[in-house]
Amino acid sequence: MAMAHRNSSFQSNDLFPREIDIEVCLKTLKIFQKMEGDVNCVVWDASLVLAKYLETMSQNRADFLSGMKVLELGSGLGVVGLTAATLGAQVTLTDLPEALPLLRLNINENKTKIGSMGGYAIAESLVWGDTTSDILKEEFDMIVLADCIYYEEAIDPLVQTLQFLNNTINKKPTIYLTQELRDSELQQRLWETFYQKLSEFFFIEKIPEEQQHANYKSPDIILLRINKK
After folding, report:
1. What is the mean pLDDT of residues 117-130?
2. Domain spans, the chain
């Protein structure tokens, strides 16, 4: 997978914290992000839309995340996965190896809050399309991913990984995905290609804005519930 090489080392003065309130359980997550950098270093709006949707669902149904095994793909800073863990889920956050130092920093920063809610979070490397990963042998209740469609060469490996994760014996995890629909022609084409390929193997349902968090939703950010056919 041709990815631009990103420098994973960071100095503490390159980082600044951003606070994210999980209103349901009165916890505030502290998420460090880089002052500047490539795609996986900053909090994107789509991740907040998905995190806040999980929170809204947990408010309506206490068992929505509590005790659930959740996998996050393309975690970046871990906003979605850490929110799920703070809502009581057992979360494995995954990204490319170079994203893990910052991801683990954010897990450690919020460990006490997560533990107090009965959740936990770990970070592991997962390269999409790598069919040998032990993670693909695990069974998950839910898969989450936010704003992961921006490289053409990542589309097939991502669809393949989602299929693999649905091939386990007992569980067919529900997938929640957000994507910011950007104006560029390239982005629109990538999204259409991904959606088409995904719909060959999965049922895709668009979650209407009125079911999302009152303050964290946008017509530009699509939220999908996806299940294996």
Report:
1. 95
2. 16-228
pTM recorded for the entire structure: 0.87
Contact partners, residue 91, CB within 8 Å, separation at least 6: 70, 71, 72, 81, 82, 84, 85, 119, 120, 121, 122
- CA gap 59, 57 in Å, rounded: 5
- Output DSSP code: residue 219: T
The dihedral sign for the CA sequence 69, 225, 80, 185: positive
Tokens representing 227 are: 């299940």
Q: Which amino acid is at 191?
A: W
Alpha helices in 16-145 (DSSP H): 45-60, 79-86, 100-109, 111-116
Tens digits of residue pLDDT in 149-189? 888 999 999 999 999 988 776 778 999 999 998 878 988 99
Q: What is the CATH number of domain 16-228?
A: 3.40.50.150
> What does the block give as tokens for 108?
């450690």
Q: In this structure, are residues 92 and 124 in contact, taking their beta carbons and an 8 Å threshold?
A: yes
pLDDT band of residue 36 (cuts 50, 70, 90) is low
